[in-house]
Amino acid sequence: SNSPRFLDPRFAMSPSPLDYTPKSVVTRKQAASVVAPSPMKHSASTAASISNPGQMHASTSAGSSTAGGVRGREVAAASSVATAQSPADGGNGGILEGVVLTFTDYQASMDAKTCESWKEVVRQNGGTVLDKYSAACTHVLAMNQLGSVCKQALRDGKKVVAAHWLNDVLACGRVFVPMQVLHYPTVFRDYVPDCPRMVISLSGYLGTQRISIRDMVQLTGAEYTNTLSKGNTHLICKKAEGLKYQRAVEWCIPVVNGKWLADLIMSNCVPDVRLPQYKEFGREDELNTSQHFAKALKAPWIKQKELKSVALVRTNSFWSHEVPQRVESTAKRPKKAAPRVMFTALPVQQSKQFKQIVLRLGGEVVSDITQCSHLVAQRVARTVKFMAAISVVSFILDPQWVQDSSHEGRFLNEGLYPLRDEVGENQMSFSLETSLQRRFMRTRPLLQGIAVHCTPSVEPRAADMQLVVECAGGKLLVEMPSEEEVVSLMQGSTSDTPKLVVLSTTQDVRQCECFIRHNVGIYMPELILEAVLAQDIDFSRHHLFAPWQDVA
Asked: What is the largest CA-CA distance in the chain?
């Protein structure tokens, strides 16, 4: 008999991601007999359409759909598939021995019968299922990382995974460390911002890998098409070859590898398609999670691996388990650098207490933002210190990180304590999490190669603006450049990639005459302030005088 497949209900119609399908997993043929695949939708612009040479048989080529349609249809699919029987005794018995898990999020996306069927399969494979989260849990199965149960589990050092991981564990017959993006809960609830406007096709991927990438595309809220047309916004390629690749280049459609899609899902923002890591085609690990994005999720697995790293001593012709001895490596593991902490937007008394805690735990309190690795703040703020920090620090943290670290007597995992200030972020029209992800994915600083000059009336003053600009990789010209310097700086400048930017106000029009003569873009200070907060600069905004604009 067969058990239900453990897949995210948002794309439960997809076949199992593994080629190997034991008795405990519904086969592709059986899944197709339960739910017929949806008809393929194509982009509105189909003037020139190319069929996919690696198209699979009907039961494995699910159609394109928007995120909303996929969710409603596929939750019903999960319920249908899950009516299959649990595995027979002895089929996969003991695979989940020692696993104590609870479900969160999934209950709201499927009926009670489906949930109970999932629980029964876990029990028959040696695992234990708890109705509610508790300290006894070793694993939490979650659709996304936004729920209170998931957040508490991560704080408690539990292993948080998605249903896809459980499905693959039963399929391959062993518990393994999750590596792929689909094995972890998402950082978004419904879709990734900007993705619903995308139309994505694939090239060069076959079999289960193609199915996984298609599921990932639909999970973001983007539209998947089996064919490529001029209406597509992106092409994800296994190799830089083939008819689809040639047409994408001809039609100026961005071509990226699977890592671009993996980073998009893990970071909840759209990476720059021009970054070199997304042009490395043929990578074997392209669907794996990036260490930075999944640091908090991977921490419990890494800790378990370290605890199990005791080598066994070889005795005669067998391994002796009675007297395990640790074998020290000849190469010393590099010691993790102590946090260099700075505080901002905190009450004075609390800041003093936190400084004492940091010093007691072996950290360092710094006053130079360029030396800071950890900024602790009560809220987001448009202060010089905060805006400079976005471009240089490794972490911007909630004060709870200091308090909990004090209670534990050690610095805790920073990935569990990111600063979140919904009110402040909404007021300033940016997302701190998205801004930091953009910065970490960028291969060069935001303002690298850009010289900035501020006229006298600009606020904040030049000394403060200098710190913000230089932390972001730019150069502030304190003195007004000569006409020869302006001409030199403007060589190679375009409206999209200027080499010189002038920040000014209407009070300083006289100061801008030289810049106007040489077609230098003159902007309001908000250009740089907004760009640093968002870690994304748009030179089409905040013009005081645009390049090549006639000024009376």
From this structure: 94
